Amino acid sequence: MASYSQTSDKEDDEDEDSDLGGGSEDPDLEKNTNKADVQKLAKEKREQAKLESQQKKLKDKEDRAKQKASRDEKKAKRQAASTKGERKR
Question: What's this model's pTM, rounded to 2 decimal places?
């Protein structure tokens, strides 16, 4: 059992070394940029989502301010109408 774990550790070390993208073994091979491309795309998506979220928050805030102004205006009109009604009585 101990010898098996030693060989598997050695194999894992070799696998890790080969995953580093070291093109020193064969200079004709190109570097695999898939991982970098995927990470870049994910980062761009996160940034876009963040921008969209900020825009939505700003729009929601403006909409709430408009709704509040509209409510206040209607309330003022109702109060003005009710005071006119009271004067007529």
Answer: 0.49
